[in-house]
Design goal:
By secondary structure, this protein is of the alpha/beta class. The chain has four domains: about 130 residues, Methylthiotransferase, N-terminal domain (Rossmann fold, 3-Layer(aba) Sandwich); about 110 residues, Transcription Regulator spoIIAA (2-Layer Sandwich); about 120 residues, Transcription Regulator spoIIAA; about 60 residues, Nucleic acid-binding proteins (OB fold (Dihydrolipoamide Acetyltransferase, E2P), Beta Barrel). It contains 14 helices and 19 strands. The strands form five sheets. A six-stranded parallel sheet has the order 2-1-3-4-5-6, with helices on both faces. The chain has a five-stranded mixed β-barrel with strand order 15-16-17-19-18. Helix 9 packs parallel to helix 10 and helix 13 packs parallel to helix 14. It binds 5'-deoxyadenosine (5AD) and iron/sulfur cluster (SF4).
Length: about 450
C-alpha cells in the first residue's frame, strides 16, 4: 500500500448527506496516505461531491470543472499530476456525459461507491483512462464504512442511517441518483454513534432522504432507534432529517412527548399547500392530512418548531394553488423553511409536462413566499427573547470570550462564557435577537 504524503481536497455541494459522505471519503483515503487540504494548489486529488437536485446546483459543477482544468494543465506543465474526481448525485445522474463535457475529469463515481475509492484510484493509475463507476451497492458501502476510524472534531455530528427513496415525487431526482430506500442495520448505527460519543460528540443528527422511513428488524421504527441511541452515555441530543409526512408514525410522535433528548425541531416538508399540486407531485397526502398531522405533533410537543421545504411554480401551478400554499404557511407558522423555484430535472415525470410556469411568475411567487417565511422566522426568534433556553455550546464565537451554540429549536445562540463550557448544555437567558441568531448570557451549566 502506498503511504507517501499526498493531499486531497473534497469540495461539498448540496445537502447534509453530502457533508457526511465527504467526511467518509476522507477516511477512506487516509490509509492511502492522503491528508486533507483546503488549498487547491496543494492538492494531488480534488473531489467534487456534487448535487443534482436543481439545475443551478448541477451547473455549478461544470463551471468549477472549467477552473480545475486550468489548474490541472498548469500542474502538468510543471511535471506534476492533479487528479480530478466528480462524485455524488451529478456523477450518478450524468456518468459518461461528464467525461464528454469535461475532459479533465479522471474519476466519476456515484454516492454509493466511494468506499471503492482505493480500487478506483488503482484502476486509474494502471490504465491511465477515465474511470466511471455507477453501481448502487448501498449495503456493501455501509458495511465497509461501518469500520470508519476517522477522528471527529466538534460536539455535533451527522450520522447517515437511511439512504435513497422509493417515493418518486414527480419533480425529484433522488430516487434515480441515490437509489432505492435502504436502512442501515441498527447495530451498525449504534456502533458509529458510540464511537462518536466517545470522541466528544454530544448531539447527533440522523440523516436520510426519508429518514422517518428507517426501519430495523422486527418492525423497529425510527422511534425505537432514537430510544436506543439516547441511552448511549454522552449523547445529550438527537435530531433527524428529512422526514416525509406519510412516514410520521404514532410512535415517533409519542417519542417527541416522552424523550427529552429528542429535540423539538422537525423538518417536515409539504412542498405545496394545494391538493391539486400535491396530487400531481405524487406526494400521496392532502393538505388536510398534513395539517392534522401537525396538530397531532403539536399536541404531543406543544413547543415543536417546524421547518419545511416548498416548491413554487410546479408545472400547472395556478395563482390560486400558490395562494393555497401561502395559506398553509400562515396556518402552520414555521420557525424556518426553505423555498425553491421548480427546476425541471431530466428524466423526472414533471419535467415532461407541457404546462411549465414562466420564470418571472416563479420568481414573483418565490419572493412573496420567502418574505412570509422570513417574517415567521423573525417572529419565532423574537418570541424567544426573555426566555431561558438550554443551549448546547459548540465552539468559540467570533469575538474573544464569546461562545456559540444551538437552542433546542436549532437557532444559533451567541453567549459570553469560558471555553470550558464547550460540549455542555447551559441554561441561557435570551436577551437579544439578530438576523439569524439569538444572543444571551448563561445562568447555569448542566
Ligand atoms: N425543483 C425545485 N426544488 C426541488 N426540490 C427537489 N427537487 C426539486 C426540483 N426539481 C426541493 C424539494 C426538496 C428539497 C430538498 O429540494 O423541496 O424537499
Ligand atoms: Fe425526492 Fe420525494 Fe423522495 Fe423526498 S420523498 S427524496 S422529494 S422523491
Amino acid at each position: 500500500m502506498e503511504t507517501s504524503a499526498k493531499k486531497v481536497l473534497v469540495k461539498t455541494y448540496g445537502c447534509q448527506m453530502n457533508v457526511y459522505d465527504s467526511a467518509r471519503m476522507g477516511e477512506v483515503l487516509a490509509p492511502l496516505g492522503y491528508a486533507a487540504t483546503a488549498a487547491p494548489e496543494e492538492a494531488d486529488l480534488i473531489i467534487l461531491n456534487t448535487c443534482h437536485i436543481r439545475e443551478k446546483a448541477a451547473e455549478k459543477v461544470y463551471s468549477e470543472l472549467g477552473k480545475l482544468r486550468r489548474l490541472k494543465d498548469e500542474r502538468k506543465s510543471q511535471g506534476g499530476e492533479l487528479l480530478i474526481a466528480v462524485a455524488g448525485c451529478v456523477a450518478q445522474a450524468e456518468g459518461e456525459e461528464i467525461v464528454r463535457r469535461a475532459k479533465a475529469v479522471d474519476l466519476v463515481f456515484g454516492p454509493q461507491t466511494y468506499h471503492r475509492l482505493p480500487a478506483l484510484l488503482a484502476r486509474r493509475a494502471e490504465t491511465g483512462a477515465t474511470v466511471v463507476e455507477a453501481d448502487f451497492p448501498a449495503e456493501e458501502k455501509f458495511e465497509s464504512l461501518g469500520r470508519g476510524t476517522g477522528p471527529v472534531r466538534g460536539v455535533t455530528a451527522f450520522l447517515t442511517i437511511q439512504e435513497g427513496c422509493d417515493k418518486f415525487c414527480t419533480f425529484c431526482v433522488v430516487p434515480y441518483t441515490r437509489g432505492a430506500e435502504f436502512s442501515r442495520p441498527p447495530a451498525q448505527i449504534e456502533a458509529e454513534a458510540r464511537r462518536l460519543a466517545g470522541q466528544g460528540v454530544r448531539e447527533l443528527t440522523l440523516l436520510g432522504q426519508n429518514v422517518n422511513a428507517w426501519h430495523g428488524d422486527g418492525g423497529m421504527g425510527l422511534a425505537g432507534l432514537v430510544a436506543r441511541l439516547s441511552s448511549i452515555p454522552g449523547i445529550e441530543r438527537l435530531r433527524y432529517m428529512t422526514s416525509h409526512p406519510r412516514d410520521m408514525d404514532g410512535a415517533l410522535i409519542e417519542a417527541h412527548a416522552e424523550n427529552p433528548k429528542l429535540m423539538p425541531f422537525l423538518h417536515l416538508p409539504v412542498q405545496s399547500g394545494s391538493d391539486r399540486v400535491l396530487k400531481a407531485m405524487n406526494r400521496d397526502h392532502t393538505t388536510t392530512d398534513y395539517l392534522k398531522l401537525i396538530a397531532r405533533i403539536r399536541a404531543a410537543r406543544p413547543d415543536m418548531a417546524l421547518s419545511g421545504d416548498f416548491i413554487v411554480g410546479f408545472p400547472g401551478e395556478t395563482d390560486a394553488d400558490f395562494r393555497d400554499t401561502l395559506a398553509v404557511v400562515e396556518e402552520v407558522g414555521y420557525a424556518s423553511a426553505f423555498s425553491f423555484k421548480y427546476s425541471p430535472r431530466p428524466g423526472t415525470p414533471a419535467a415532461e409536462r407541457k404546462v411549465q410556469v414562466p420564470e418571472e411568475v416563479k420568481l414573483a411567487r418565490l419572493l412573496e413566499l420567502q418574505a412570509l417565511i422570513a417574517r415567521q422566522q423573525s417572529d419565532f426568534n423574537r418570541a424567544c427573547v426573555g426566555k431561558s433556553l438550554p443551549v448546547l455550546v459548540e465552539k468559540p464565537g467570533r469575538r474573544p470570550g464569546q461562545l456559540s451554540g444551538r437552542s433546542p429549536y436549532l437557532q444559533a445562540v451567541h453567549l459570553d462564557g469560558p471555553e470550558g463550557l464547550i460540549g455542555r448544555v447551559v441554561e441561557t437567558q435570551i436577551d437579544g435577537v439578530g438576523t439569524n441568531s439569538l444572543s444571551g448570557h448563561y445562568r447555569t451549566a448542566a
